[in-house]
Every structure is written in structure tokens, then in C-alpha cells.
Amino acid sequence: MARVTGIGGVFLRSRDPGKLASWYRDHLGLAMSEHGTVTFHWADCATDDQPGSTTLALFPQGTEYLGEPGQKAMLNLRVDDLIQLLVRLRARGVEVLPHTEDSEYGRFGWCVDPEGNRVELWEPADGM
């Protein structure tokens, strides 16, 4: 039977793909290609303590969780030290939302890219 086996990617519209790729590369450490792509291979970085996962979540049209009403998608990026990353982003002048959230899934924080897209940064709880 044909079935979905995982998330293939997250795609964003961009007014200037090269500039936005540089921002993600310079500020969040993503190894963006010159074409503005990066692929994560979970088998390459998964451990018994951090097996790695990607989630697809659907939200109601009126949610404020994704940011501004016109934002149709939000990236959720796994990070290994949320607080240090947020400190570094603030020091570089990146807009960082003032709160973090702790849950059974780990710790969450948010920043905004230069095109106004809210980006969720996630430090997973042990075993996630």
C-alpha cells in the first residue's frame, strides 16, 4: 500500500531567496546551498537519546501561533542549546520573541526572519 513515510520538506516563499538563504546560514547555522536548500538526514545525526523526528501539525486558520495572519507556514528547527542560540541571535540584532516555553516535548523559543516569518526553535526533551 502506498503511504506517506515522513516530511519531505518545508518550503517558504521569498522576496529574495539568496538573501534569505544567507540569513538562515549566518544566523541559524543551516548549511544552505547556493540554491537555498538544505536536507537533513536523521540517520546521520540520530542517537539513542535523541532519535530525531519531524512533525507535521495543522493549526486553525485564526491561530496566532504561526505569527502574522498572512504567514502560511512556520519552520520548527531542532537546536541543541536554545538559550545560547537566542542570546547569540539577539546580539546579532535578530528579532527574538521575549518568551520561551517549556513542555513535555522540550523547550521552545521563537525568532523572526528578515521577511517577517516566525521561526520556532526547539530544544527537544531527552528521548525525543
UniProtKB/TrEMBL annotation:
Residues 6-124 form the VOC domain. It holds the Pfam family Glyoxalase. CDD domains: VOC. It comes from the Bacteria. InterPro entries: Anthracycline_SecMetBiosynth, Glyas_Bleomycin-R_OHBP_Dase, Glyas_Fos-R_dOase_dom, VOC_core. Gene3D superfamilies: 2,3-Dihydroxybiphenyl 1,2-Dioxygenase, domain 1. Signal peptide: none annotated. This is VOC family protein.
